[in-house]
Write a structure and sequence with these properties.
alpha+beta; 4 helices; 30% helix
């Protein structure tokens, strides 16, 4: 996956693709501060609740959304994390990425994997919608001792 990184803060004239590329770069770098800047103050966050998975929970503020990456890193083995993006579509303020992700839960040593789809909306140069659809069953099973 190729990601361009810009040090400029998102503004209203920044393209959806540019903001999403900056989001991906910040996630890969584990840059929670930058992610907080990229997310809007209030975010329409959808990720199917999964009570057995500590990093999957409701979120609504930019800071909460940005923290999800750090929480994921805390509960999984970073060296085993893999993600690939097969499709990156942009239509106006919306972007959809599809691909495949995999990892290992630190506490159990069990692996999870599966396809994902991520819908992001960029308004005013910031992400206002983050809807992630993934193999929640595989992740829950990996979290179960």
């Amino acid at each position: 996956m190729s990601v361009k990184v810009s040090s400029a803060k998102p503004t209203s004239d920044v393209s959806t693709r540019t903001v999403v590329e900056e989001f991906l770069a910040a996630r890969l770098a584990g840059d929670t501060g930058r992610l907080t800047e990229i997310f809007a103050d209030e975010v329409d966050w959808v990720l199917a609740e999964n009570p057995g998975v500590p990093w999957i929970r409701p979120r609504s503020t930019g800071a909460e959304c940005a923290a999800q990456g750090a929480e994921l890193a805390e509960y999984t083995v970073p060296e085993d994390a893999r993600a690939s993006v097969d499709v990156f579509l942009v239509d106006g303020k919306d972007a959809v990425l599809t691909g495949y992700l995999a990892g290992t839960v630190r506490a159990t040593g069990k692996s999870f994997e599966g396809p994902f789809a991520l819908r992001l909306t960029v308004e005013g140069g910031r992400i206002t919608r983050h809807h992630l659809y993934e193999n929640s069953l595989s992740i829950a099973e990996a979290c179960t001792p």
